[in-house]
Predict the structure.
Amino acid sequence: MYQALYRKYRPTDFDNVVGQDVVVNTLKNAIKYNHINHAYLFSGPRGTGKTTIAKIFARSVNCTDSVDGLACGKCRNCLYSFSNECMDIIEIDAASNNGVDEIRELRSKVNILPSELKYKVYIIDEVHMLSIGAFNALLKTIEEPPEHIIFILATTDPEKIPATIISRCQWYSFKKICNNDIKMRLNDIVKLENIEVEDAVLDKIAQASDGGLRDAIGLLDKLRAFSSFKITLDDFYNINGEINEEELKRLEELIFSYKISDVLSCVEKYYQEGKNLVQVIKQLMILIKNDLFDYYLDEKSLAFDEEELVNFLNLLNEHLVELKKADDVRLSIEIFLLHYINEHKNEDSKALINNQVIVNSSNESSYVKSTKEEKTAFIKPLEKEEKALSTENVKINDNQIEKFKELMLIRSKNTMIEAVKDELNKEIVNLEKLNDYTFDSNSGYLACELLDGKIRASSFKHIIISYDYEGMVDKLSNHFEKLNAFYNEKTESSKTIAFITTSKWNELKSEYINLHKQGKNFKYQEEPVLNTLKENDKINNESNDLISKTIEMFGDLVEVE
């Protein structure tokens, strides 16, 4: 029967372990100087050698002729520990044996002496899956086990393990294995198995494995099964759901050239070809990161604006987890790209207009020159009184934003007083309904703005939606009532929405928890009423109407600041 490569080439002694030198050296010294602890905790990412090293340690600690912490592999204990009949090294999967009864059964057996070896070693894999009751049942045994017992707990999520358990173990943290070490190990396996493979493929496998050697070897095994001849980069792209370098660079160029129809066509094409869209996004992130690193470290030129590349990379990084968990990954990626390109396309147009504004000091007028010579719009400059009025309008707008934030803060606190978990779950589902309206020509931007936020709490009257950036919340202050009305119309709701920043939400949550511990709560407050437009605002709106008519007449290359 065929044996998977990751099992066939699993290390059987410390010298063959890859990428965990600190852990290996410490454990070898512990065996060498007989400083054996009664309980160990191995934590780290999957595929980094936790269970493998646990088994090696269990055999090495029982070797009667070990040299510098290494098992001899020849003595009676070594031969027995490698045999299938060995009953003194017990591996338990906590994911399927996580109840109190299983741990109680384990406790009843720990007092039984080893049948052949010096130590009876219990390796409990995925220990974080144990229930609280099971942890409590295990606690006393781990604290004071018999002298012949060693516990090795392995986990990918140490945060879920009670501190009382961790404090009784010697904790070893496993790191992700670097790409060079993974590639070297893959090279060894390729030579031993006589596999023909392009060198670039091994680099890609190491990169795709994300520090997990087991995943890397498994991917190599899959590629060998896929390709009848020499394994090529195209084979890797096909099996891993990725696109080649040429297509990736073309996608980058289309995004930063704001060609929305071509970008959406590419996403459609990749979807029809069965590509892993999340993996394509990861490829794009790596490409942009490499471009920026080349720019910073080697002073190579960038094809696109540095600040825009950094911002785009940051946004992708923030939304990657949400994209992975989305019910419809393709739709979520399309919405993200649509929103980004539309937003930056408008900004790019504005920047173009600003560059074309020429000030004529002789007649104190300015004009905007169109890209087409026949279109030239003249705009009369502001007189002194109008300039003073404009300054006053800025102050009024700032004042309105402050009042808006005050209203949102009060509404948020009132929501938290009456928050109901069922209502929160209900509104999370309601928000997803807005995905159906993102491509609507009239209200799509409202749906996108709401979907950019995250629902944090809901009562029967109010909802809290948070945004990562303060500038986004300030922007919503101009039309928050319209957003609220749109949300209620499409979700058949009747609640008012509080728009706040994520940082403000975290502050409120901490304040709420501290008050709750003291048996207190926020005090309910009446919401202030925002002032209606003053006369100056009306004048400003009339001016805006005039500008709109000008733009309609001369095109969208006119901007007044």
Remarks:
- The mean pLDDT is 82.
